[in-house]
Amino acid sequence: MQEDFLHYLWKHKKFDFTRARTSDGQPIVLVDPGMHNYNSGPDFFNARIRIGNQLWAGNVEIHLRASDWYFHRHETDSNYDNVILHVVWEDNIEVYRKNNSIIPSLALSGLVDRALVNKYRDLVTTREKWINCEKNFPEIDEFKLRHWLERVYSERLENKSELILEMLKASENNWEAVLFRLLSKNFGLNVNGDAFLSFAQSFDFTLVQKCALERLNLEALFFGQAGFLEEDFSETYFENLKREYEFLRHKYQLKNEQVIHPKFFRLRPDNFSNIRLSQLASLYHRHKNLFSELIRAKELNSIFEIFKVETSEFWQTHYSFDKSHKKRAKRITNSFVDLVVINTVVPLKFCYARETGEEPKEDILKILTEIKAESNSVIDKFNFLRPGTARNALDSQAVLQLKNNYCDLNKCLNCEIGAGLLQAVN
Predict the structure, then answer these.
(1) Which Pfam families would you find in this protein's record (predicted)?
(2) Per-residue pLDDT tens for 8-39?
(3) What b-and-e string marks burial along 282-292, b requiring 16 or more CB atoms within 10 Å of the CB?
C-alpha cells in the first residue's frame, strides 16, 4: 500500500462516504475533496467537508498511518495549521495541531471495495513486469492513449524549458547564445553532449558572431577551445588553425581548462567530434541570425534547408588531422537534423513562444508528427506491446517521458492509463 493510492481514493471519492465517520464517530460529508497539491505542504488544498453539523473549509493531509503525522514532524510545521481532516488507512494514534487542538481523522481501510484494493495491488506489485500495466496496455482505448501521450509530451517540453530558462538567465536573455549552447550540446550527442556544452560555455557567444565571417577563424575558435589544437601536426590546415587560435586566445583571454575533452570511443567516424565541430562552424558561418531564422521557420522542410551544411574542405578528406582518405562530402544528414529538431529546435520554439506570450502548440505538434519515431529499447518495447504506439517523434518522445517519469517510478495513479484501469473496477 502506498500513499498515492489513498490520494486516488480521496480525490476520486472511491470509498463508501455514506459510512464515513471520524474516529470519534461523527458523520462526514465530503462536499469538495480540494485541489491536489504535488509540492510541499498538505496533500489537498481548499477542501470543504461537513463534520457533524459544522461545515469546514481548509486542507487535508493523507498518510498510511496516523502516526506518520509525527514521523514527518507536521506538529511543528505551521503549513499544517489549517488541516481540517487527517485521512489515513490505519488510525493508530490521535493527532494534534501546534496549538494542541485535535485534528479529526478518517480511516479508509473499512470503506474501500476489496476488489479495488486487489486491483491496485495487482497493478503495482512487480512480478518481473517491464511496466505495471503491460498486460492491459494493448487494450487501452486509442483516443485515451493519444490524449495522454500528448499531455505527457507537454510535460517533457515543460521539463526541457527549465534548462532553457536557466541558460537564458545566465546569458542575460540572449536567445542566440542559448541556441548555440543547446545546439552544441546536441551536436555532441549522448556520448559528448556534456563535453560540447562545456566547450560552448567556455567563451562568450559574441565571439562566435565576430568570427563567423571567416570559417577558418570560427573553426580555430571551436577546435582550440575544445582542446584539439594542443598537439603538433604538419598539415597546413592545422598550422593555420593553431596560429589563428593563438591570436584569438591572447586577444580575448580565452581559457579552456574546464572544458571536458570529447571522446571518440565507439563512435562512427561521421559522428567524430572534429566532424561535428566543423559542421557547427559551417552552420554559423552560413547563418548569422540562426535563432531568428529557426523561429520564423514554420515547416519542417524550411528547417531542413537551414541545416543543409557540410564540413570545411579539409574534413572532406580527413577524419583526423594526420590521416587522409578519398574525398567525400560530409553533410549533416536528415536523421541528424531530426534529432536536432526534436531536442533543440522544438523545445526552444516552445519556450520562446511561452516567454513572448504566444501559443506555439499547433506548430510544434505539426513539426513533430512529420518526423518519424526514434528507435531505442524503450520505444521498441512499447511498439512490441502495442504495435503502432510510437508512430512519430511526438509519440516516441512521449513514451520516453512516460516510462521514465511514471512507469519506472510506479506512479500508475498519476497516469491516465493506470488510473483508468482502476476506474473500471467500480
Answers:
(1) DUF2851
(2) 899 988 898 889 999 989 999 999 999 999 88
(3) bbbbebeebbe
